[in-house]
Amino acid sequence: MIIFGLQQIRAMYALQSTFMLGFSYQLLQVLIRIFPDRRGDARESIFNSNMITMPSKRLRIAQVSPLYESVPPMLYGGTERVVSYLTEALVELGHEVTLFASGDSVTNARLVPCCPTSLRLNPGCVDQIAHHFVMLDRVLEQAQRGEFDIVHFHIDYFHFPISRAYQLPQVTTLHGRLDLPDLPPLYRRFPEMPVISISKSQREPLSLANWVGNVYHGLPENSLKFGDGSGKYLAFLGRICPEKRVDRAIEISLKAGLPLKIAAKVDRADRDYFETEIKQLLKLPGIEYIGEIGEDQKTDFLGNASALLFPVDWPEPFGLAMIEAMACGTPTLGFRRGSVPEVLSPGVTGIIANNMSEAMGSMQDLLAMDRVTVRRGFEARFTASRMAREYISLYHSILQAREAPDQTASALLTAPELETPLTF
Protein backbone atom coordinates (compact mmCIF):
# COMPACT_ATOMS: atom_id res chain seq x y z
CA MET A 1 0.00 0.00 0.00
CA ILE A 2 1.40 3.40 -1.00
CA ILE A 3 1.30 6.18 1.59
CA PHE A 4 0.54 9.67 0.32
CA GLY A 5 -0.91 11.54 3.30
CA LEU A 6 -1.26 15.24 3.93
CA GLN A 7 1.57 15.23 6.44
CA GLN A 8 3.86 14.13 3.63
CA ILE A 9 2.28 16.54 1.18
CA ARG A 10 2.73 19.51 3.55
CA ALA A 11 6.27 18.54 4.58
CA MET A 12 8.80 21.15 3.58
CA TYR A 13 12.42 20.05 3.38
CA ALA A 14 15.57 22.01 2.64
CA LEU A 15 16.41 21.59 -1.03
CA GLN A 16 19.67 19.75 -0.39
CA SER A 17 19.34 16.80 -2.79
CA THR A 18 21.57 16.13 -5.69
CA PHE A 19 19.88 17.29 -8.89
CA MET A 20 20.20 15.99 -12.41
CA LEU A 21 23.60 15.96 -14.13
CA GLY A 22 25.52 16.93 -11.03
CA PHE A 23 23.49 19.95 -9.89
CA SER A 24 24.59 20.76 -6.37
CA TYR A 25 22.88 21.98 -3.24
CA GLN A 26 24.11 25.49 -3.95
CA LEU A 27 22.52 25.48 -7.38
CA LEU A 28 19.23 24.35 -5.92
CA GLN A 29 19.28 27.33 -3.61
CA VAL A 30 19.88 29.53 -6.65
CA LEU A 31 16.95 27.82 -8.34
CA ILE A 32 14.64 28.90 -5.54
CA ARG A 33 16.05 32.43 -5.61
CA ILE A 34 15.19 32.63 -9.32
CA PHE A 35 11.56 32.80 -8.19
CA PRO A 36 11.74 35.36 -5.32
CA ASP A 37 8.08 36.28 -5.64
CA ARG A 38 7.01 32.64 -5.34
CA ARG A 39 8.37 31.71 -1.95
CA GLY A 40 7.01 31.68 1.55
CA ASP A 41 3.26 32.22 1.75
CA ALA A 42 2.83 31.33 -1.90
CA ARG A 43 3.45 27.69 -1.06
CA GLU A 44 0.54 27.52 1.33
CA SER A 45 -1.71 29.56 -0.95
CA ILE A 46 -1.06 27.13 -3.82
CA PHE A 47 -2.05 24.22 -1.64
CA ASN A 48 -5.33 25.90 -0.71
CA SER A 49 -6.14 27.41 -4.11
CA ASN A 50 -8.79 26.30 -6.59
CA MET A 51 -5.98 24.65 -8.52
CA ILE A 52 -6.56 21.47 -6.48
CA THR A 53 -10.35 21.58 -6.36
CA MET A 54 -11.68 18.32 -7.72
CA PRO A 55 -13.82 19.08 -10.79
CA SER A 56 -16.80 16.84 -11.44
CA LYS A 57 -15.92 15.99 -15.03
CA ARG A 58 -13.58 18.26 -16.95
CA LEU A 59 -9.99 18.51 -15.73
CA ARG A 60 -7.46 21.22 -16.50
CA ILE A 61 -4.32 19.23 -17.21
CA ALA A 62 -0.77 20.35 -17.98
CA GLN A 63 1.34 17.88 -19.94
CA VAL A 64 5.06 18.66 -19.61
CA SER A 65 7.13 16.99 -22.32
CA PRO A 66 10.88 16.72 -22.83
CA LEU A 67 12.16 19.20 -25.38
CA TYR A 68 14.54 16.88 -27.20
CA GLU A 69 11.91 16.02 -29.84
CA SER A 70 8.80 17.79 -31.05
CA VAL A 71 5.40 16.47 -29.95
CA PRO A 72 4.85 14.33 -31.93
CA PRO A 73 8.41 13.70 -33.15
CA MET A 74 9.23 14.09 -36.80
CA LEU A 75 11.32 10.92 -36.63
CA TYR A 76 12.30 8.80 -33.62
CA GLY A 77 11.14 9.74 -30.13
CA GLY A 78 9.30 7.35 -27.88
CA THR A 79 8.52 9.60 -24.90
CA GLU A 80 7.40 12.60 -26.94
CA ARG A 81 5.27 10.35 -29.15
CA VAL A 82 3.46 8.91 -26.14
CA VAL A 83 2.96 12.43 -24.75
CA SER A 84 1.36 13.38 -28.06
CA TYR A 85 -0.96 10.36 -28.09
CA LEU A 86 -1.99 11.01 -24.48
CA THR A 87 -2.52 14.74 -25.01
CA GLU A 88 -4.72 14.28 -28.05
CA ALA A 89 -6.75 11.50 -26.39
CA LEU A 90 -7.36 13.70 -23.33
CA VAL A 91 -8.57 16.53 -25.57
CA GLU A 92 -10.88 14.13 -27.37
CA LEU A 93 -12.32 13.10 -23.99
CA GLY A 94 -13.25 16.75 -23.36
CA HIS A 95 -10.51 17.84 -20.97
CA GLU A 96 -8.73 21.19 -21.08
CA VAL A 97 -5.10 20.34 -21.83
CA THR A 98 -2.05 22.58 -21.96
CA LEU A 99 1.07 21.13 -23.57
CA PHE A 100 4.51 22.43 -22.64
CA ALA A 101 6.79 21.35 -25.47
CA SER A 102 9.03 22.59 -28.27
CA GLY A 103 7.64 25.26 -30.59
CA ASP A 104 7.51 22.95 -33.62
CA SER A 105 5.04 20.64 -31.86
CA VAL A 106 1.58 20.09 -33.35
CA THR A 107 -1.40 19.58 -31.06
CA ASN A 108 -5.11 20.24 -30.54
CA ALA A 109 -4.28 21.26 -26.97
CA ARG A 110 -3.08 24.73 -25.99
CA LEU A 111 0.63 24.77 -26.81
CA VAL A 112 3.12 26.64 -24.64
CA PRO A 113 6.34 26.67 -26.71
CA CYS A 114 9.38 26.46 -24.45
CA CYS A 115 12.02 26.61 -27.20
CA PRO A 116 11.63 27.43 -30.90
CA THR A 117 12.38 23.93 -32.20
CA SER A 118 13.14 20.50 -30.76
CA LEU A 119 16.64 20.21 -29.40
CA ARG A 120 18.10 16.90 -30.62
CA LEU A 121 18.39 17.88 -34.27
CA ASN A 122 19.14 21.56 -33.60
CA PRO A 123 22.85 22.13 -34.37
CA GLY A 124 22.76 25.46 -32.56
CA CYS A 125 21.73 23.97 -29.22
CA VAL A 126 24.67 23.40 -26.86
CA ASP A 127 23.00 23.27 -23.43
CA GLN A 128 19.73 21.34 -23.62
CA ILE A 129 19.14 21.54 -19.87
CA ALA A 130 18.90 25.34 -19.97
CA HIS A 131 15.74 25.14 -22.07
CA HIS A 132 14.16 22.73 -19.60
CA PHE A 133 14.77 25.21 -16.77
CA VAL A 134 12.97 27.87 -18.78
CA MET A 135 10.08 25.44 -19.25
CA LEU A 136 9.92 24.65 -15.53
CA ASP A 137 9.63 28.33 -14.74
CA ARG A 138 6.77 28.72 -17.20
CA VAL A 139 4.98 25.70 -15.74
CA LEU A 140 5.36 27.11 -12.23
CA GLU A 141 4.21 30.57 -13.30
CA GLN A 142 0.97 29.25 -14.78
CA ALA A 143 0.40 26.77 -11.97
CA GLN A 144 0.62 29.59 -9.44
CA ARG A 145 -2.11 31.41 -11.29
CA GLY A 146 -4.34 28.42 -10.65
CA GLU A 147 -4.58 27.37 -14.31
CA PHE A 148 -4.24 23.62 -13.76
CA ASP A 149 -5.93 20.98 -11.66
CA ILE A 150 -2.92 18.72 -12.12
CA VAL A 151 0.48 18.86 -13.80
CA HIS A 152 1.67 15.67 -15.49
CA PHE A 153 5.46 15.63 -15.91
CA HIS A 154 7.33 13.43 -18.39
CA ILE A 155 10.80 14.84 -17.63
CA ASP A 156 11.96 12.45 -14.91
CA TYR A 157 12.92 14.16 -11.65
CA PHE A 158 13.88 17.60 -13.00
CA HIS A 159 10.92 19.20 -11.23
CA PHE A 160 11.09 17.43 -7.85
CA PRO A 161 12.60 20.33 -5.83
CA ILE A 162 10.18 22.85 -7.33
CA SER A 163 7.15 20.58 -6.97
CA ARG A 164 8.00 20.01 -3.31
CA ALA A 165 8.76 23.64 -2.54
CA TYR A 166 5.57 24.96 -4.12
CA GLN A 167 3.32 21.98 -3.41
CA LEU A 168 2.23 21.53 -7.01
CA PRO A 169 -0.56 19.02 -7.65
CA GLN A 170 1.47 16.76 -9.90
CA VAL A 171 2.47 13.29 -10.99
CA THR A 172 5.36 11.96 -13.06
CA THR A 173 5.41 9.13 -15.57
CA LEU A 174 8.87 7.59 -15.60
CA HIS A 175 9.72 6.56 -19.15
CA GLY A 176 13.27 5.27 -18.78
CA ARG A 177 15.34 2.60 -17.12
CA LEU A 178 15.52 2.72 -13.32
CA ASP A 179 18.32 0.27 -12.53
CA LEU A 180 20.91 3.03 -12.13
CA PRO A 181 22.80 3.22 -8.80
CA ASP A 182 22.36 7.00 -8.62
CA LEU A 183 18.56 6.84 -8.36
CA PRO A 184 17.82 5.27 -4.92
CA PRO A 185 19.41 8.18 -2.98
CA LEU A 186 17.35 10.63 -5.02
CA TYR A 187 14.05 8.84 -4.38
CA ARG A 188 14.88 8.44 -0.68
CA ARG A 189 15.28 12.20 -0.58
CA PHE A 190 11.94 12.74 -2.36
CA PRO A 191 9.83 9.86 -1.02
CA GLU A 192 6.50 11.68 -1.40
CA MET A 193 6.76 12.33 -5.14
CA PRO A 194 3.99 10.33 -6.91
CA VAL A 195 5.27 8.39 -9.90
CA ILE A 196 3.67 6.14 -12.51
CA SER A 197 5.35 3.19 -14.18
CA ILE A 198 4.91 2.08 -17.78
CA SER A 199 5.46 -1.60 -16.92
CA LYS A 200 5.57 -3.65 -13.76
CA SER A 201 9.13 -4.76 -14.44
CA GLN A 202 10.28 -1.15 -14.66
CA ARG A 203 9.58 -0.75 -10.93
CA GLU A 204 11.68 -3.66 -9.72
CA PRO A 205 15.00 -1.86 -9.18
CA LEU A 206 13.28 1.11 -7.51
CA SER A 207 10.58 -0.39 -5.32
CA LEU A 208 11.09 2.39 -2.72
CA ALA A 209 9.57 5.01 -5.05
CA ASN A 210 6.05 6.29 -4.39
CA TRP A 211 4.33 4.28 -7.12
CA VAL A 212 0.71 5.37 -7.52
CA GLY A 213 -0.16 3.43 -10.66
CA ASN A 214 0.93 1.62 -13.79
CA VAL A 215 -0.25 2.66 -17.25
CA TYR A 216 0.85 0.84 -20.38
CA HIS A 217 1.43 2.97 -23.45
CA GLY A 218 -1.21 3.17 -26.16
CA LEU A 219 -1.53 4.24 -29.79
CA PRO A 220 -4.45 5.90 -31.58
CA GLU A 221 -6.48 2.98 -32.88
CA ASN A 222 -6.21 3.97 -36.54
CA SER A 223 -2.75 5.54 -36.54
CA LEU A 224 -1.17 2.43 -38.08
CA LYS A 225 -2.96 0.25 -40.60
CA PHE A 226 -3.25 -3.51 -40.78
CA GLY A 227 -0.74 -5.09 -43.15
CA ASP A 228 -0.53 -8.48 -44.82
CA GLY A 229 3.20 -9.07 -44.40
CA SER A 230 3.61 -9.46 -48.15
CA GLY A 231 7.15 -8.05 -48.09
CA LYS A 232 8.50 -11.34 -46.70
CA TYR A 233 11.20 -9.71 -44.61
CA LEU A 234 12.00 -9.33 -40.93
CA ALA A 235 11.99 -5.85 -39.39
CA PHE A 236 14.04 -4.10 -36.71
CA LEU A 237 12.78 -0.72 -35.50
CA GLY A 238 14.22 1.71 -32.95
CA ARG A 239 17.78 2.61 -31.99
CA ILE A 240 21.13 1.08 -32.81
CA CYS A 241 22.80 0.75 -29.43
CA PRO A 242 24.30 -2.08 -27.34
CA GLU A 243 21.12 -2.74 -25.33
CA LYS A 244 18.81 -3.08 -28.36
CA ARG A 245 21.05 -5.78 -29.93
CA VAL A 246 20.59 -5.22 -33.64
CA ASP A 247 23.51 -7.67 -34.00
CA ARG A 248 21.21 -10.41 -32.68
CA ALA A 249 18.56 -9.41 -35.21
CA ILE A 250 21.11 -9.69 -38.01
CA GLU A 251 22.21 -13.13 -36.82
CA ILE A 252 18.61 -14.37 -36.58
CA SER A 253 17.77 -13.18 -40.07
CA LEU A 254 20.87 -14.73 -41.61
CA LYS A 255 20.23 -18.10 -39.96
CA ALA A 256 16.54 -17.98 -40.89
CA GLY A 257 17.38 -17.17 -44.50
CA LEU A 258 15.13 -14.09 -44.50
CA PRO A 259 16.00 -10.50 -45.41
CA LEU A 260 16.21 -7.97 -42.58
CA LYS A 261 15.29 -4.29 -42.90
CA ILE A 262 16.63 -2.02 -40.17
CA ALA A 263 14.87 1.31 -39.52
CA ALA A 264 16.80 2.84 -36.64
CA LYS A 265 18.58 5.97 -35.53
CA VAL A 266 22.10 6.22 -34.19
CA ASP A 267 22.50 8.65 -31.30
CA ARG A 268 25.70 10.59 -30.88
CA ALA A 269 26.51 8.54 -27.76
CA ASP A 270 26.26 5.31 -29.78
CA ARG A 271 28.21 6.44 -32.84
CA ASP A 272 31.42 4.62 -31.85
CA TYR A 273 29.47 1.41 -31.20
CA PHE A 274 27.85 1.72 -34.62
CA GLU A 275 31.14 2.33 -36.40
CA THR A 276 33.11 -0.44 -34.68
CA GLU A 277 30.52 -3.17 -34.07
CA ILE A 278 27.60 -2.78 -36.45
CA LYS A 279 28.55 -0.94 -39.62
CA GLN A 280 30.39 -3.89 -41.16
CA LEU A 281 27.43 -6.20 -40.45
CA LEU A 282 25.19 -4.04 -42.61
CA LYS A 283 27.17 -5.16 -45.67
CA LEU A 284 26.12 -8.79 -45.23
CA PRO A 285 23.74 -10.23 -47.83
CA GLY A 286 20.06 -9.61 -47.13
CA ILE A 287 20.70 -6.84 -44.60
CA GLU A 288 19.28 -3.43 -45.50
CA TYR A 289 19.83 -0.35 -43.34
CA ILE A 290 17.11 2.23 -44.00
CA GLY A 291 17.97 4.68 -41.25
CA GLU A 292 15.57 6.69 -39.11
CA ILE A 293 11.95 6.74 -40.32
CA GLY A 294 8.95 8.91 -39.52
CA GLU A 295 5.49 7.95 -38.35
CA ASP A 296 4.07 8.11 -41.86
CA GLN A 297 6.47 5.36 -42.97
CA LYS A 298 5.74 2.88 -40.21
CA THR A 299 2.58 1.37 -41.65
CA ASP A 300 4.41 0.23 -44.78
CA PHE A 301 7.57 -0.76 -42.93
CA LEU A 302 5.85 -2.83 -40.24
CA GLY A 303 2.75 -3.86 -42.16
CA ASN A 304 4.75 -5.44 -44.97
CA ALA A 305 7.10 -7.25 -42.59
CA SER A 306 6.63 -10.93 -41.76
CA ALA A 307 7.68 -10.26 -38.16
CA LEU A 308 9.38 -7.71 -35.91
CA LEU A 309 12.59 -8.72 -34.14
CA PHE A 310 12.93 -7.25 -30.64
CA PRO A 311 16.01 -9.03 -29.21
CA VAL A 312 16.73 -6.57 -26.39
CA ASP A 313 19.42 -7.15 -23.78
CA TRP A 314 18.49 -4.63 -21.09
CA PRO A 315 15.59 -3.96 -18.68
CA GLU A 316 13.31 -2.58 -21.40
CA PRO A 317 10.87 -0.14 -19.73
CA PHE A 318 8.14 -0.68 -22.33
CA GLY A 319 9.08 -1.07 -26.00
CA LEU A 320 6.77 1.00 -28.19
CA ALA A 321 7.87 -0.85 -31.33
CA MET A 322 6.14 -4.02 -30.11
CA ILE A 323 2.69 -2.42 -29.98
CA GLU A 324 3.31 -0.54 -33.22
CA ALA A 325 3.94 -3.92 -34.85
CA MET A 326 0.77 -5.32 -33.21
CA ALA A 327 -1.26 -2.46 -34.67
CA CYS A 328 -0.11 -3.58 -38.13
CA GLY A 329 -0.91 -7.22 -37.37
CA THR A 330 2.78 -8.09 -37.33
CA PRO A 331 3.93 -10.63 -34.71
CA THR A 332 7.01 -9.92 -32.62
CA LEU A 333 9.87 -12.13 -31.52
CA GLY A 334 11.04 -10.63 -28.21
CA PHE A 335 13.67 -11.66 -25.71
CA ARG A 336 12.62 -12.12 -22.09
CA ARG A 337 13.97 -8.89 -20.68
CA GLY A 338 12.17 -6.07 -18.88
CA SER A 339 8.63 -5.43 -20.06
CA VAL A 340 8.59 -7.95 -22.92
CA PRO A 341 6.62 -10.64 -21.02
CA GLU A 342 4.03 -8.03 -20.04
CA VAL A 343 3.56 -6.57 -23.50
CA LEU A 344 3.65 -9.70 -25.64
CA SER A 345 1.03 -12.41 -25.22
CA PRO A 346 2.77 -15.65 -26.25
CA GLY A 347 1.00 -17.37 -29.10
CA VAL A 348 -1.32 -14.39 -29.56
CA THR A 349 0.78 -11.34 -30.44
CA GLY A 350 4.25 -12.82 -30.51
CA ILE A 351 6.79 -15.26 -29.09
CA ILE A 352 9.18 -14.76 -26.17
CA ALA A 353 12.63 -16.35 -26.28
CA ASN A 354 15.16 -16.77 -23.50
CA ASN A 355 18.18 -17.11 -25.78
CA MET A 356 19.29 -17.30 -29.39
CA SER A 357 18.66 -21.03 -29.61
CA GLU A 358 15.03 -20.60 -28.56
CA ALA A 359 14.68 -17.66 -30.93
CA MET A 360 15.81 -19.72 -33.90
CA GLY A 361 13.63 -22.64 -32.88
CA SER A 362 10.53 -20.44 -32.74
CA MET A 363 10.77 -18.87 -36.20
CA GLN A 364 8.38 -21.28 -37.89
CA ASP A 365 5.68 -20.69 -35.28
CA LEU A 366 6.30 -16.95 -35.38
CA LEU A 367 5.81 -16.71 -39.12
CA ALA A 368 2.65 -18.82 -38.96
CA MET A 369 0.86 -16.58 -36.44
CA ASP A 370 -2.53 -15.16 -37.42
CA ARG A 371 -2.16 -11.47 -38.17
CA VAL A 372 -5.81 -10.67 -37.49
CA THR A 373 -5.41 -12.10 -33.98
CA VAL A 374 -2.29 -9.97 -33.47
CA ARG A 375 -4.23 -6.84 -34.43
CA ARG A 376 -7.05 -7.78 -32.05
CA GLY A 377 -4.48 -8.07 -29.27
CA PHE A 378 -3.48 -4.47 -29.91
CA GLU A 379 -7.08 -3.26 -29.93
CA ALA A 380 -7.82 -5.03 -26.65
CA ARG A 381 -4.87 -3.68 -24.67
CA PHE A 382 -2.90 -0.86 -26.23
CA THR A 383 -5.09 1.94 -27.56
CA ALA A 384 -4.54 5.58 -26.68
CA SER A 385 -8.12 5.96 -25.44
CA ARG A 386 -7.56 3.19 -22.89
CA MET A 387 -4.31 4.85 -21.81
CA ALA A 388 -6.01 8.23 -21.38
CA ARG A 389 -8.89 6.82 -19.33
CA GLU A 390 -6.46 5.12 -16.96
CA TYR A 391 -4.51 8.35 -16.50
CA ILE A 392 -7.73 10.28 -15.82
CA SER A 393 -8.59 7.78 -13.08
CA LEU A 394 -5.17 8.29 -11.51
CA TYR A 395 -5.44 12.10 -11.73
CA HIS A 396 -8.70 11.97 -9.78
CA SER A 397 -7.18 9.65 -7.16
CA ILE A 398 -4.19 11.94 -6.69
CA LEU A 399 -6.38 15.01 -6.29
CA GLN A 400 -8.66 13.18 -3.85
CA ALA A 401 -5.63 12.12 -1.82
CA ARG A 402 -4.52 15.74 -1.50
CA GLU A 403 -7.88 16.62 0.06
CA ALA A 404 -8.44 13.44 2.07
CA PRO A 405 -7.66 12.90 5.75
CA ASP A 406 -4.28 11.26 6.32
CA GLN A 407 -5.81 7.97 7.34
CA THR A 408 -7.65 7.54 4.02
CA ALA A 409 -5.17 8.99 1.55
CA SER A 410 -3.16 5.79 1.29
CA ALA A 411 -6.23 3.80 0.29
CA LEU A 412 -7.02 6.29 -2.47
CA LEU A 413 -3.58 5.86 -3.99
CA THR A 414 -3.19 2.12 -3.82
CA ALA A 415 -1.93 1.09 -7.24
CA PRO A 416 -4.40 -1.03 -9.23
CA GLU A 417 -3.72 -4.61 -10.19
CA LEU A 418 -1.78 -4.82 -13.42
CA GLU A 419 -3.46 -6.62 -16.27
CA THR A 420 -2.14 -9.96 -17.49
CA PRO A 421 -1.30 -10.78 -21.13
CA LEU A 422 -4.07 -11.95 -23.41
CA THR A 423 -4.98 -15.57 -24.00
CA PHE A 424 -7.35 -16.39 -26.84
Question: Can you characterise this structure?
Answer:
It is built from 18 helices and 13 strands. It is α/β, with parallel strands linked by helices. 37% of the residues lie in helices and 14% in strands. The two termini are 32 Å apart. Helix 4 crosses helix 17. A seven-stranded parallel sheet has the order 3-2-1-4-5-6-7, sandwiched between helices. Strands 10-9-8-11-12-13 form a six-stranded parallel sheet, sandwiched between helices. The N terminus is likely disordered.
Describe the strand arrangement of the main beta sheet, using strand numbers.
3-2-1-4-5-6-7
- Helix content class: 25-40%
β-strand number? 13
Q: What amount of the residues lies in strands?
A: 5-15%
How many DSSP helices? 18
Q: What structural class do the secondary elements suggest?
A: alpha/beta
For this structure, the quaternary state is single chain
Major sheet summary line: 7 strands, parallel
Q: Mean pLDDT, rounded to whole units?
A: 86
Shape: globular
| Cα radius of gyration in angstroms | 22 Å
What key attributes describe this structure?
disordered N terminus, 14% strand, 6-stranded parallel beta sheet, 18 helices, alpha/beta
Summarize the structure.
This protein is α/β, with parallel strands linked by helices and about 425 residues long. The protein has 18 helices and 13 strands.
Could you give the topology of this structure?
Elements: H1 6-10, H2 25-33, H3 41-48, E1 60-64, H4 78-92, E2 96-101, E3 110-113, H5 128-144, E4 150-153, H6 160-165, E5 170-173, H7 183-189, E6 194-197, H8 200-203, E7 210-214, E8 234-239, H9 246-256, E9 260-265, H10 271-278, E10 287-289, H11 298-303, E11 307-310, H12 320-327, E12 332-335, H13 340-343, E13 350-353, H14 356-361, H15 363-367, H16 371-381, H17 384-403, H18 406-412
Parallel strand pairs: 1-2, 1-4, 2-3, 4-5, 5-6, 6-7, 8-9, 8-11, 9-10, 11-12, 12-13
Helix pairs in contact: 4-17, 17-18
